[in-house]
Amino acid sequence: MSLWVRRKMAMRFLYAMNFLHKRGVCHRDLSYRNVLVHTYNEAFMVKVADFGLAKERNSDLTSTGSSMKGSIEDPALKSFKDFKPVNDIYSIGFILNYILTGKENLVTDGSRLGSIIQKCSATNPADRYQTVWDIIEDMRKAECPVG
Fold first, then answer.
1. Among 39-53, 68-82, 90-104, 128-142, the least confident range
2. pTM for this structure?
3. Hey, is 39 helix, strand or coil?
4. Greatest CA separation found in the chain?
5. Which residues contact 40 (CB under 8 A, 6 or more apart)?
6. Which of 8, 12, 28, 99 could in theory staple to 53 by disulfide, Cβ–Cβ 3.0 to 4.6 A?
7. Does the pLDDT of residue 83 top 90, yes or no?
8. d(CA 147, CA 132)
9. Is 74 a catalytic residue?
10. Which positions fall inside the Protein kinase domain (predicted)?
11. Domain residue ranges in the chain
12. Contact 104, 90 (CB under 8 A)
């Protein structure tokens, strides 16, 4: 796929996640398998799937026995009950990386794309983007060269 198509996919994924977070919903199980791309001739649609572990803001519905099950787990998250949008953002970095490069290993080349991905997936949540909208704004500004 061309860079233009991959970038468009990435943006559609980000808009979907922004929609959820603006409505107070954390996905809590983002993975490569939970982002679906449906193609129609030359067009495509990006869908975020599997909301079995999703949680609305201020909800106390997490069982004390719930454990993290996603393929991309935030190392800073000590308790699933404490999950916040910034924890989804950690996973978003890995998924953006995969959409844009086709690789699971994070880009570390110092490019604008690499900087965006690294900021999403920073070990310390305070060093990450705090909202998906901030990622969208930086993606809009970036040329996002992919190697």
1. 68-82
2. 0.85
3. strand
4. 46
5. none
6. 28
7. no
8. 24
9. no
10. 1-147
11. 3-50+71-141
12. no
Helix or strand (DSSP H, E) at 40 = strand 35-40
- CB neighbours of residue 97 within 10 Å: 24
Ordered alpha helix ranges (H), 2-131: 3-22, 85-101, 112-120
For the chain, the average pLDDT equals 85
User: Is residue 91 a contact partner of residue 72, using CB atoms and an 8 Å limit?
Assistant: yes
Structure tokens at 93: 């970095």
Angle 78-84-87 from CA coordinates, rounded to 5°: 65
Please tell me which residue in 29, 50, 88, 109 is annotated as part of the active site: 29
Eight-class DSSP state of 22: H
Burial of 72 (0-12, 13-18, 19+ CB in 10 A): buried
Candidates 49, 60, 53; CA nearest to 28 is 53
Six-digit token string for 45: 């649609």
Residue appearing with tokens 């009950």: 81
3-state SS, residue 129: coil
CB atoms within 10 A of CB 67: 8
CATH of domain 3-50+71-141: 1.10.510.10
What's the rounded Cα separation, in Å, for the pair 14 and 52? 20
